[in-house]
Amino acid sequence: MRVLVTGASGTFGRALCRALTEQGAHVIGLDLAPRDDDPVEVLACDITDDDAVPQVVATAVERLGGLDVLINNAGIGGPAPAEHAPGAEVRRQLDINLLGTWRVTAACTDALVASRGRIVMVASRMAVMQLPLAAAYGASKRAMVAYADALRLELGTHVSVTCVYPSSVRSPIHDSTAKAGLSLEGMSAYESLEGVVDTVLHAALSVRPRRDLPTTRRGAAEFFLARHLPTVADRIVARTFAERLRAGAFDGAALAARAVARHREVAR
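RESULT FIELD:
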C-alpha cells in the first residue's frame, strides 16, 4: 500500500508513519520542516504554497509508484476568540488546516482515482462540538469536514473519504494557546495518541471504509450529541466554560478579558 501523510514530522505524523510502516505500507511524508530522525522519507513542503504543492506531491507519487491512501494530518491550533476580528493567526489556521488540505488533496486526486484509493481527514471533535476561545481551529476543522463531504459526492464512485474526530491529545499544537493564557485544560478530556493512531489506521486499512470515525467512546457520545442534540451540547460546553471562568482559569489573558468581564457581571 502506497501512502502519503501530511504533517509527517509532527507528533501525530511521526506516530502514523511509523505505524503504517510496521503494517508494511510504503510511506512518504510531507512537512514544512522535516527532521533528520523521521521514520520515513519526508519531503519539505509548504502546504500554503499554491505552486509548490503540486510539484512536491508529483514527486512523492512518482517515488511511491502511485498512491493508494492520502492522510491529511497536517494542522495547527492557536488562540482565536470568535468575538475578535480575524487577523494573521486566524488566516494562518484556515490556510493550513483547510486550504492546505484542499491543495494537497487536489494534487492527489488523479492518482487516487486511478488506484480506487482512500482519503483520510484527521479532523477534530471541534469540527462538530466547538469550544470557546479557539474559533479559528473549530471553523477550519468544520470546513475541512464540509470539504470532505463535497469530495465524497464528487469522487465517491472511485475514492472513499473518511473523517476521523480525535479530541485533545497532549502535543505542541496546544503550546501557543497555553502561552496566550487560553489553555482549554479542563474543557476537554485528553485521550491517548495511540488511540488516535489506531483509529486513523482503521480508516486507512479496513476492508470497508467508514464515513465518520470518532476515536473514543466518549468522542462517539459527543459526536452524537453535537449532530443530533446540538442545544444540549451547547449547554454542556457553556456550563463548563462558565465554571472555568469562575475558577479564574483565564484571568490575566488579554484575549479572554471581555468574556471574563461578562461572566463576572452576570454573577453579581
